[in-house]
Amino acid sequence: MLDPAQLAALAAVHRRGSFDLAATELHVTPSAVSQRIKALEEVTGTLLIRRSQPCAATEAGLRLIRHHDEIALLERSLAADLPGLAPGPATLRIAVNADSLATWVIPALAATSGLLFDLVIDDQDVSQDWLRRGEVVAAITSHPGPLQGCDTIPLGLLRYRATASPSFVARWFPDGVTAPALLAAPTLTFSDQDQLQARWADRHCKRRRQALPTHRMASSQAFVDACLAGLGWGVNPEPLVAPHLASGALVELLPDTALDVELYWQFTRLAGPVLAPVTAAIRQKAGSTLVPPA
């Protein structure tokens, strides 16, 4: 039998990245956290945490963290039938892409109660990887699956517009938005996984496979602010830029060249009962915000 306190220490160190932060979360000393993980490693006979900066679980450690999360979900489901157990709020770890978080996910999460959320922010093209590794119980992803042990619900299309300020367009695209001009005009990139600007350029301007000059900033709102300030052009979620397009503060690089990204809500079947209110809220908000699939 594995010690629940030791499993909780393992999960906390991996997710917080250090023994000190894990100790704060668990309301114990760093020494106690270290002793619990050492004892768990002795029981399992293998290294569970790489003691680096930040600390990270090994493959065996991730499997035990998944086991810890599954036990917590089962206990939460049991408590629904046995109210006398009176558990505290369940913490659900979910992978969400930044643009969904900035446009429609927060109101969906706010529509639920009795839950705490630990959100992992990552690109929709790789958020499924967090679910595959067992580090989250659900993800908003651009991949429909199938993923073993998981269910997938289509949510709709998040529509993007390639936008810039009028002064930026006048400066960098005086002869139109062409492939050579795109290789000179600075764009914006969220992270190394962000391919939206390149995809838009490939689709509409037949650019050669050359890297676009780019500013890097991991913030959906900063993308919009940078476009408004004339720092660069970017592919922005339509809900964020619609007011600026209407006012003329931003313009589309090429009219009516939307880029649609299909999104899915994917979650482990074991977490399904606990996630039910979240799933309902996600579906409702997505239905009123996202573009229905063709």
Give me the Rg, rounded.
22 Å
Helix content: 40-55%
Q: For the record, give the distance between the C-alpha atoms at the N and C termini, rounded to a whole number.
A: 51 Å
Order of secondary-structure elements: HHHEEHEHEHEEHHEHEHEHEEH
Query: Beta fraction of the residues?
Result: 15-25%
Task: Give the overall form.
Answer: elongated
Q: Write the CATH homologous superfamily of the domain at 158-260.
A: Periplasmic binding protein-like II
The assembly state of the depicted protein chains is single chain
CATH architecture of the domain at 158-260: 3-Layer(aba) Sandwich
Describe the 3D structure:
With 294 residues, the chain is an alpha/beta fold. Among the domains are: 1-88, Orthogonal Bundle (Arc Repressor Mutant, subunit A); 158-260, D-Maltodextrin-Binding Protein, domain 2, CATH 3.40.190.10. The chain is 47% helix and 20% strand. It is built from twelve helices and eleven strands. Strands 3, 4, 5, 6, 9, 10 and 11 form a seven-stranded mixed beta sheet that branches. Strands 1-2 form a two-stranded antiparallel sheet. A two-stranded parallel sheet has the order 7-8. Helix 5 (98-110) links the parallel strand 3 and strand 4. Helix 1 packs across helix 3 (30-44). The longest helix is centred in the first third of the chain and has 23 residues, at 59-81. It is elongated. The model has no long low-confidence stretch (mean pLDDT 92).
